[in-house]
Design a protein that fits this description.
This protein has 231 residues and is an all-alpha fold. The protein has a domain of 120 residues. It is built from 10 helices and 2 strands, in the order αααβααβααααα.
């Protein structure tokens, strides 16, 4: 059975729209720094790492057309527009411009409609997962730490998940259960490789901090906690 038959085209947008509304209801004074720090993190990735990632994306999505590919639902365009408008309002224009300059070419080459994106061939999933892990390792330690140190506690204090959101999340978890074994194994294997790459990077950062004394005890503890959470 094809994967597209397992995906409810309304479920994901409904879930993300509800969750997005919860986040966008947060006061500007609290949400603004989270947007700004998140963009700082993405903008901290070296240009050569971004270029390599863009090359992999281009290669793995080449030839896919939205009228013939397997389409995977995206969050609604309305939500994306609201997030973009809010970020433009709350984040310094030069940061937004730098983000678009860095990531716009990659995002614009993805074959997608307003409602869905092409799913690449199963053989491409491993390469894309590893490329994602590689580019993620390029995020600056200071920028990453600043984002998580602020955003985690802020969201815990501000976000309240409603029964409707939790019900949609449970339904979304059940969607892949009837997919073919080959499809589920491909997604699982790709996820495991991405997780392993993330753990290697955490170990590298902890060892670097211990070797050079470049991180405070609190920073080293935060890395250790992140490692434990990933296990």
């Amino acid at each position: 059975m094809e994967l597209r038959a397992q995906l409810d085209s309304k479920l994901l947008p409904s879930f993300t729209d509800l969750l997005g509304k919860v986040v966008l209801d947060i006061d500007d004074r609290k949400l603004g720094p989270a947007f700004s720090l998140g963009i700082d993190a993405f903008n901290s990735i070296p240009p050569e790492a971004v270029a390599t990632f863009e090359g992999v994306v281009k290669q793995e999505f080449t030839g896919l057309k939205t009228d013939t590919c397997t389409l995977v639902p995206l969050p609604s365009k309305a939500l994306a527009d609201k997030v973009g408008a809010r970020a433009a309002k709350l984040v310094a224009p030069e940061k937004v411009k730098a983000f678009d300059s860095t990531w716009g070419p990659t995002l614009r080459q993805l074959p997608k409609t307003d409602a869905a994106i092409c799913l690449p061939p199963i053989a491409s999933l491993d390469r894309l997962a590893l490329a994602q892990a590689d580019v993620g390792r390029g995020i600056g330690y200071a920028q990453s730490k600043a984002f998580f140190d602020y955003t985690g506690p802020m969201l815990k204090g501000e976000v309240r998940l409603t029964d409707e959101i939790l019900a949609l999340a449970r339904a979304a978890q059940q969607l892949p259960e009837e997919a073919s074994f080959k499809e589920r194994k491909a997604f699982t294997d790709a996820g495991k490789k991405l997780e392993a790459a993330s753990k290697r990077e955490l170990n590298k950062q902890i060892l670097s901090a211990k070797r050079f004394g470049g991180a405070s005890p609190a920073e080293t503890a935060a890395l250790a906690a992140a490692k434990a959470a990933a296990q």
